[in-house]
Amino acid sequence: MTAPQKIAGFVVGLAVVFAAALRIGAAVGPDVAPGVTTDQSVHSEESASAAASVLPAGLSATEDGYTLELASTRVDAGKQVPLRFRITDATGAAVTRYVDNHEKQLHLIVVRGDMAGFQHVHPTMDAAGTWSVPVDLNAGDYRVFADFVPAGGDNLTLGADVQVAGRYDPQPLPPVATTATVDGYTVKLAGTPTANEPSMLTFSVTRDGKPVTDLQPYLGAYGHLVALRASDLTYLHVHPMGEPGDGITPAGPEIGFHTTFPSDGDYRLFLDFKHQNVVRTAEFTVSVDPGPQSPMTTESSQGHDH
Ligand SMILES: [Cu+2]
Q: Rounded to the nearest whole angstrom, what is the distance from the C-alpha of residue 44 to the centroid of ligand 1?
């Protein structure tokens, strides 16, 4: 199956399940491990299913009455292509009031279905509530995630698809690796990502073999981590433990995250960090181990390769 076909199927099947999970996400503060300190009663209807205790998001364009409406779902490829959209509320009106969330009213993540071309940008909004931002697009199917807090509402991540015209040559997911390089920086990942329980992931940033100890705060943190599930682009946005200026969090070389992956399988991680006034993104493919409550762990020990 292609990624778009999978997405289509998953959106229908999982949107309902994830609706409750999304609301739990709203209760999580910026530096709190997802799924750890949230109000467990919120999702009692999910009968304590493991899937509901974590925060998958971004599979649906509509959630909680809010809808991500792209001005166009088909655009031409190019550099700095203007992407326009609105967030509408349950009455269909454009939302114009937002609550700052990590120093911005809205975070937009754009990525192609094969995980290429990741961009994390901050659109500007006009008085009528139309957001716009230039992005670089190559041919292919892209997913756009809007991560925001509407005034009076909860944190939401809505996802919608954009088709970019042209010949699309989807790339295979890069192999699992614990080292990534970007612009002369080397980032090493330590930790064992595991499904359905908090996983500690530590990234260590070096340049020319020397630890980088003067990372700069970017959007109120030394790092921002977006994880996308390879099978359906389920979205997790994770903030690190500790924050700049708290007196205990060093400015590198290590950046630690707690996150709970909603399932085993392959994920692509995108770590944004800022150094010498430039924000860079280190990308990793990780294979998440089945967790203690994963349905795969009970009887698949001899059948895992089928
Ligand atoms: Cu952002």
A: 31
CA of 201 to the centre of ligand 1 (A): 20
Given strand 62-63, what is the order of strands in its sheet? 62-63, 66-70, 78-88, 130-137, 124-125
Average pLDDT, the chain: 83
Q: Are strands 156-164 and 74-75 parallel, antiparallel or unpaired?
A: parallel
Q: State mean pLDDT over 9-19.
A: 41
**How far away, in angstroms, is 254 Cα from ligand 1 center?**
21
**How many Å from the N-terminal Cα to the C-terminal Cα in the chain?**
17
What pLDDT score was predicted for residue 102?
87
What does pTM read for this prediction? 0.78
CB-CB contact of 21 with 59 (8 Å): no
Q: Which two tokens stand for residue 26?
A: 């709203």
How much distance in Å is there from the Cα of 300 to the middle of ligand 1?
39
Q: How far does residue 142's CA lie from ligand 1's centre (Å)?
A: 18
235, 145 contact by CB (below 8 A): yes
Distance 106 CA to ligand 1 centre (A): 7
Residue 170 has phi, psi (to 5 degrees) of -60, 140
